[in-house]
Amino acid sequence: MGNRLRDLSGKFSAATRALRPSEVREILALTENRKVLSLAGGLPGPEVFPKEDLARIASRVLEELGDSALQYSPTLGVMPFREAVADFVRSKGVKVLSDDRVAVTTGSQEAIYLLAMTLINPKDAIIVESPTYLAALNVFRYYGAEFVSVPLDENGMKTELLEDKIKEAKSKGLNVKLVYTVATCHNPTGVIMPDDRRKELLEVASKYDLLVIEDDPYSFFVFDEVPFTPLKTLDSEGRVIYLGTFSKILAPGLRLGYMVADRQITRMVELAKQMVDLHSSTLSQYIALYALKEGVVERTIQKARVFYREKRDIMVETLEKYMPEGSHWFKPRGGLFAFIYLPDGVDTSDMLPMAIERGVAYVPGRSFFSDGSGVNAMRINFSYLPPDKLREGIRLIAETAKDYMKSKGK
Ligand SMILES: *Cc1c(COP(=O)(O)O)cnc(C)c1O
User: Are 223 and 383 in contact (CB under 8 A)?
Assistant: First the structure.
């Protein structure tokens, strides 16, 4: 027996050595064993999980389906579930084209990963909202993608800037390949893109022959009357890849997401998924299938929407009451998050230890930008904590910000 290896850092691949821990997961770890009010995660409110329904359904699935619920199953998902997902998205106004197929994935995170794996060569450029969903940025970055950041306002991505941004990227020799967008109840800002911008986005995508990933975990939780049409529905050319998930409408622990896309895409995704995990959990798929058929998913959506709208209102009211002068935010039209800009000079990463000391956590804004901006921003989640704790958490953030500014002489 030789000496035990102490330092393995030289063993890891170059791409792996470049990985940085997810700021959100690190913060969650920090707050785990302490009495810290976490506005950092993206967790659905535990009060909306249909625990009793799921217990009943899980035992029914095992009784009725027996071994087949526990066996290996096809890579793109078990057929009755894929069909039920197609019906479900259609019922929500998502157009499924005749050449489209449904691929079941292990959360939409895996869908994003499989798309990066199958579509991205190093130096391919991806158009993203600025800010955007940080877990997607990380995956695309791992595959060597470059980002073209398009700013957003209360109506989402400023699509009028798209063409100039694309031309600029092309002049730098980048191969602009796709758009990644959370057009509906954007993470982290909660804004919704209206149809005129959606149409403009698709026109530009058509002109420059781009694929579009429409990541849509939140269109079930729209709180205000904002009309919009899924990009997938507005697209007749088959360039939109639509992603959905059961994480926010049933339970994230089931790890079930889905992709609706042209069958040429789902075929390559199938080959990639065979390498990654063979298939998503058979048992989870049957549980979700029964939950869809019995109306449990629909009831959970309705219930969650009421809870989350109330919490959104409480959050906005509390922000207005306590946040320091010079702060601003977009009123979230739906989803689970708000993105707050504190006055210039505040560095929310630098401020975070003070906040945790006071008993509250948030996610610093920088990680939501591909270009290091957002130093004075933060994302807060309003779905998880009960109303009184949510109020308290926001008050503590505001107090921390005021103290921080005082300590910096602002
Ligand atoms: C929550 C979320 C997801 C879903 O993640 P899962 O892997 O399905 O749990 C995907 N995209 C965005 C923008 C999200 O906020």
Answer: no
Q: How far is the CA of 217 from the centre of ligand 1 (A)?
A: 6
Atom index in ligand 1 nearest the CA of residue 246 equals 8
Q: Which of 263, 296, 329 is the last residue of a domain?
A: 296
State which amino acid sits at residue 23: E
Q: Quick one: 146 and 245 in the same domain?
A: yes
Pocket of ligand 1 from Cβ distances under 6 Å: 42, 107-109, 133, 182, 187, 215, 217, 245, 247-248, 252, 257
Nearest CA to ligand 1 atom 15: 187
Number of domains the chain contains: 2
Model pLDDT for residues 229-271, shown as the tens digit of each residue? 999 999 999 999 999 999 999 999 999 999 999 999 999 999 9
Predicted confidence band at 135 (pLDDT cuts at 50, 70, 90)?
very high
Same domain, 121 and 155: yes
User: Regarding beta strands 360-361 and 328-329, do their DSSP bridges make them parallel or antiparallel, or are they unpaired?
Assistant: unpaired
Q: Count the alpha carbons within 13 Å of 318 in the hemisphere toward its beta carbon.
A: 23
